[in-house]
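Per your request, structure below.
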């Protein structure tokens, strides 16, 4: 659609008006144009104009609202996706940690079960040792008792041997006395002579018998002495052994008591190990159940996150469809020229496109800049810029020659937000001066304050840059979060599509 240019470049110039005709597009319904018509026709055209203005305002308001909702929806969707991703990652991490804990618990359970089995075996050995130590203590006590009896018997035997030795001494005395009496009798018998010969023979025999008895008593005494010494030695050894046995008995009793304590302690450890094994087994079972429940919950969270994203996507698609419909409704209303804001913007857009197109042609004809330079698409990155900025061979010329034109049309109304020339890839060599401030190094300030030399190749930017229809209406949220209504129109140069002028308003 081709728009009739207003014969002005500044806002206060009076428009040239002609009565509407049946074939004129757009149909001019402005009051100055229909004032020459009959009253009934004026009323009809005025009603149509009011309807068109209402439709236009409503369409742009609806589009504005939908754009805000879409922006908020996209923001919420992005946050939801990020949150879902983070939540899924956290759940996966917790699941892995839980799995690791479960594996660790199961590993500990295996070790505890081994310790439990070993503790039970040691407990059995300790119980056997304790029982054996009790038996050993009883046997040792019995041995001490037997040794005491033996010692008593040896002492009795020693005492008896003392009596024997005494009796042997008495026998030796008697033998010595008998031997002495026999000797005296033999001497007396010799004095008597022949009459005492028989008595002397008897006395001699008695003396020999007494000597023999004395000798035998001596021999027996020696043997008894040896036996007595042996008994004394045995008695002393028995005494020493008895003393050691009594001393060892206390040690054996203490060892048996310690063995009993050890057995009790081992039994307690075995019970505690068994209890620990049972408890860990229960905990492992609970963790297995928890792991299964957690996996189920993680799957539910993932499914819910996926459903949320799908729902958000469907909402965004519905909003996009509604926005497109409101924009088409606006486009239908542009078949009429009224005094509305949209009509004024369309008029100014048509003017600025014509003026910038003429200036580009003029520059090529005068040799100010070549066609190749104007179609340069070798975007050279400017280091140290974020968002990234680029330069081309036409950047400086556009800033010098086109930016003043952009600023002049931006100044036509406080409701205009920017007037921007972009090439067919969305590259803006020079934005309006208010958006071409010196870089500060603060990303937030520079994002809004310096928007020149940037590639606006987002979907909205590319749609505007590559549109070849008479105009394109878009309502969208800028990267600063500001909701914009934008009309754009293509710029043709040397028979080719060069780019577009983007005209934003509120």
């Amino acid at each position: 659609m081709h728009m009739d240019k207003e014969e002005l470049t500044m806002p206060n110039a009076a428009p040239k008006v002609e009565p509407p005709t049946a074939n004129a597009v757009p149909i001019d319904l402005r009051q100055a144009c229909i004032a020459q018509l009959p009253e009934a026709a004026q009323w009809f055209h005025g009603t149509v104009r009011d309807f068109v203005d209402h439709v236009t305002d409503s369409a742009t308001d609806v589009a504005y609202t939908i754009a805000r909702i879409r922006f908020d929806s996209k923001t919420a969707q992005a946050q939801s996706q990020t949150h879902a991703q983070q939540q899924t990652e956290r759940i996966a991490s917790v699941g892995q940690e839980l799995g690791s804990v479960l594996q660790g618990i199961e590993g500990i359970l295996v070790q505890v079960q081994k310790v439990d089995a070993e503790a039970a075996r040691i407990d059995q050995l300790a119980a056997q040792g304790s029982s054996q130590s009790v038996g050993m203590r009883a046997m040792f006590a019995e041995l001490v008792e037997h040794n005491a009896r033996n010692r008593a018997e040896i002492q009795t035997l020693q005492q008896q041997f003392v009596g024997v030795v005494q009796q042997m001494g008495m026998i030796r005395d008697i033998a010595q006395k008998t031997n002495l009496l026999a000797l005296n009798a033999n001497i007396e018998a010799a004095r008597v002579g022949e009459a005492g010969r028989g008595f002397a023979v008897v006395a001699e025999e008695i003396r020999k018998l007494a000597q023999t008895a004395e000798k035998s008593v001596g021999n027996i005494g020696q043997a008894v002495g040896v036996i007595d010494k042996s008994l004394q030695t045995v008695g002393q050894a028995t005494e020493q052994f008895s003393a050691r046995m009594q001393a060892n008995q206390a040690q054996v009793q203490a060892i048996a008591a310690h063995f009993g304590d050890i057995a009790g302690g081992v039994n307690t450890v075995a019970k505690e190990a068994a209890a620990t094994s049972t408890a860990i087994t229960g905990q492992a079972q609970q963790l297995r159940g928890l792991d299964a429940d957690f996996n189920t919950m993680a799957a539910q969270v993932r499914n819910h996150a996926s459903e949320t994203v799908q729902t958000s996507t469907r909402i965004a698609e519905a909003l996009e469809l509604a926005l497109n419909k409101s924009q088409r409704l606006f486009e239908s209303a542009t078949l009429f020229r009224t005094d509305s804001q949209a009509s004024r913007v369309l008029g100014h857009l048509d003017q600025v496109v014509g003026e910038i197109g003429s200036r580009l042609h003029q520059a090529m004809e005068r040799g100010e800049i070549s066609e190749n330079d104007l179609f340069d698409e070798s975007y050279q990155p400017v280091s140290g810029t974020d968002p990234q900025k680029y330069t081309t061979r036409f950047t400086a010329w556009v800033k010098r020659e086109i930016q003043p034109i952009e600023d002049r049309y931006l100044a036509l109304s406080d409701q205009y937000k920017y007037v921007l020339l972009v090439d067919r890839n969305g590259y803006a060599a020079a934005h309006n001066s208010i958006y071409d401030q010196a870089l500060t190094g603060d990303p937030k300030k520079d994002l809004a304050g310096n928007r020149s030399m940037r590639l606006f190749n987002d979907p909205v930017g590319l749609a505007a840059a590559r549109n070849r229809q008479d105009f394109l209406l878009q309502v969208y949220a800028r990267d600063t979060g500001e909701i914009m209504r934008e009309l754009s129109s293509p710029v043709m140069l040397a028979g080719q599509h060069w780019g577009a002028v983007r005209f934003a308003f509120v």
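Confidence is low (pLDDT under 50) at residues 1-17.

Regards,
D.
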